Amino acid sequence: MKRLLIVFLSGLSFSFGQNSIEDAINQYNSNSVAYINVEMLNRELQSKENLVLLDTRSKAEFDVSHLKNAVWVGYDEFNLNTVKHLSKTSEIIVYCSIGVRSEEVGEQLQQAGFLNVKNLYGGLFKWFNKGFKVYNLSGTATKKVHPYNKFWGMFLINAEKSYH
């Protein structure tokens, strides 16, 4: 939560000095949770059945679109009770818009003893920008993505930005 507030408060200076997802990740993440890139995740999703995808964005963002079979756990709402049914050795991928909120949830999971937690590098935005599918609540592929806000939306390419 603290890091998200810093991101919001420093957004003005960030917008003048940096203009890529990579710049944002480098500025706001501490690399405390190992990354998985979108191409590797796509391969793993095709070959592994027991991969757990946790969406750490707001419910409104998740409702617009998310990765297939992802479970919404939220960021402000995140609670370790949500994942108490998972084995500590489960392969867990956390993601958000670009990877800032998910890193913090990943840290909480690691502190709780989960051994195989990875953060999706560039998050849902990089996933979508690379041409991989996202899905709405009915399970249908969609071009709509919730950009969190107009500032972060600049990192989305060819998406139908939906703020609902």
Total DSSP E strands: 9
Would you identify the CATH architecture?
3-Layer(aba) Sandwich
Terminal-residue CA separation: 22 Å
- By CATH, the superfamily comes out as Rhodanese-like domain
Order of helices and strands: HHHEHEHEEHEHEEEHE
Oligomer: single chain
- The geometry reads as globular
Judged by helices, strands and strand pairing, the structural class is alpha/beta
Number of separate structural domains: 1
Side by side, the strands of the main sheet go 1-5-4-2-3
Helicity level: 25-40%
Mean pLDDT: 90
SS element count, helices: 8
Ranges where pLDDT stays below 50 over 5 or more residues in a row are: 4-17
User: What amount of the residues lies in strands?
Assistant: 15-25%
Would you write up a description of this structure?
It comes from Psychroflexus salarius. This is Rhodanese-related sulfurtransferase. It holds the Pfam family Rhodanese. Residues 47-136 form the Rhodanese domain. The chain is of the alpha/beta class and 164 residues long. The chain has a single domain (2-161), classed as Rhodanese-like domain (Oxidized Rhodanese, domain 1), CATH 3.40.250.10. It is 38% helix and 16% strand. It has helices spanning 2-9, 11-17, 21-28, 38-47, 59-64, 100-111, 123-129, 150-153; strands spanning 35-36, 52-55, 71-72, 91-95, 116-120, 134-135, 141-142, 144-145, 160-161.
Summarize the structure.
This protein is of the alpha/beta class and 164 residues long. It has helices at 2-9, 11-17, 21-28, 38-47, 59-64, 100-111, 123-129, 150-153; strands spanning 35-36, 52-55, 71-72, 91-95, 116-120, 134-135, 141-142, 144-145, 160-161. The strands form three sheets. It has a five-stranded parallel sheet with strand order 1-5-4-2-3. The chain has a two-stranded antiparallel ribbon with strand order 6-7.
